[in-house]
Known about the structure:
Elements: H1 17-25, E1 32-34, H2 41-46, H3 53-57, H4 62-70, H5 86-95, H6 104-117, H7 128-139, H8 146-152, E2 155-159, E3 162-163, H9 169-176, E4 183-184, E5 187-188, H10 190-193, H11 200-211, H12 218-234, E6 239-242, H13 254-265, H14 273-292, E7 295-298, E8 302-303, H15 308-314, E9 322-323, H16 328-331, H17 333-339, E10 347-349, H18 356-365, E11 371-373, H19 383-397, H20 414-435, H21 441-448
Parallel strand pairs: 1-2, 2-4, 3-5, 6-7, 7-10, 10-11
Antiparallel strand pairs: 8-9
Helix pairs in contact: 1-20, 6-20, 13-14, 14-17, 18-19, 19-20, 20-21
Amino acid sequence: MTLLHPDRLFPPDPRTRPIARDLYRGIHDLPIFSPHGHCDPAWFAQDKPFSDPAALLIQPDHYVVRMLVSRGIPFEALGIGTAANPREVWRCFAAGYRLFAGTPSRLWLDHTFETLFALHEPLTAENADTHYDQIAECLADPAFRPRALFQRFGIEMLATTEGALDPLTHHAAIRNSVWRGNVVTTYRPDSICDPDHPDFLRDLNLLGQTTGCDTGDFPGYLDAHRKRRAAFRAMGAIATDHGVPDAATLDLARPEAAALYDRVRRDAAEPGDRAAFRAQMMTEMARLSIEDGMVMQIHPGSRRNHSSAVMTRYGRDCGFDIPGPVNFVEGLRPLLNAVGHAPGLRIVIFTLDESTYARELAPLAGAWPALLLGPPWWFFDSPDSIRRWREAVTETAGFHNTAGFNDDTRAFPSVPARHDMARRCDCAFLADRVADHRRKRPAALVRVLRH
């Protein structure tokens, strides 16, 4: 028995499927570039064995956690918020594995089970222990340590994401080791750019202490960002990452921006100041990207920590972030009018508001040189969503105004599974366009090869 059909995600049409197969055959083993994700750099710095199947495949993957919790399984039964026997956590997961039918998580997990751990039977409550034992036996083998898997997965580059004040100790250890895997960091300054962040005032003080800059005024504060960005670039960073609730930007005159900063720094913000400062900093971050060449990634639209009780008891990233509507046209206008034509500036926009693909994002990217459309992300990195995204944006933005796939994962073994899914989906989309003679086969390959 096998969990994976060789033609999965290809078109069912017998005239088109061979074209998709042919396209996929030429690209399936290309190196993986993972430009946006949340893997732990300590894995690669320390290269310790992964402890157990539950810690590897369940607890770091909020897609898995949220689905099980949605059916009434307590966080504690999954080993979150309390110590738990990993085998019992795995049994709980196996008993609920049927819940993942129809989801991309099922595709990723089945891919991982079969291609990484040589498990060919569907996971059930009855075979939970057998699966657990086989995975645990594999994890004890040096061939399954993080660095070895990095090479096995064919990863050319993997970007992690760290807060602006992270000491980057693990990235320094990677760079000082004999291992040559390309693991780079990404600059995420949310806690020092968003006055609504719970650590904003504390981290603002730490920013000055860390950089030696006078963050008592706006120019010194911006200089502190420059120093931290330079430190991140020294650890390989090529991008910044901004998780904001909406797409609002501003381009205030310098005296007005300085006065706004002074009010939020002193915790004397007036109504509207906090949102205004966050919006102003999006434009300032774009200007800093013009200076140092880092790609700017913006991903608005997540309503974070929808369950206050879960946030209080278990913390962030437990599956209770929910999509919400975003106005990109008006929100991005101040930033784009300020710097949208700047040579070399690249801003990648992700969204959780699928309704904006054709109406707003494709027309924006099809006009403004600085903008690229990020791929379907988070709730939408799934086969049907990828197809909808391609159909919604391609006729307006084309292929070359879109960015390649990113896996955005904390679950390391899912990286090759997710990229394989995206490649198959792109081959299916392109096969249709070859079949109806809108694209010639060599040209169709160009887009796929960018993954």
